[in-house]
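#struct-help
A.M.: can someone run this one for me? Single chain, 97 residues.
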Amino acid sequence: MVVWLRDLRVLRSEILMKVRVQFYAQLRDQIGMRELDIELVEGATVRDLLEKVYAQQPALRPHDKSILIGAGVEFVDRNYELKLGEEIAIMPPVQGG
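D.P.: on it. Structure tokens below:
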């Protein structure tokens, strides 16, 4: 899944970021959708994003321990703070033979 931080708006003195999440491979197949828009408060982490994704798509939660998360060309952990305009990729583990 790839995430784009789309825009900002203010709600009750909190700045909200609209995030577009794109799903790939078996994650996309499992939930039957390519993308999902999520709103998060400014300063939210990947962990916060995942919790909102899992709340809307609970079938993805069992994959939590195995997914890979990338920011730019680096892999990041769930404590990574999302930034406006950043692209986040969330993908199943890489398999090869």
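A.M.: thanks! Residues 46-56 form the longest helix (11 residues).
D.P.: also worth noting: Strands lie at 2-11, 14-22, 35-41, 68-71, 74-75, 87-91.
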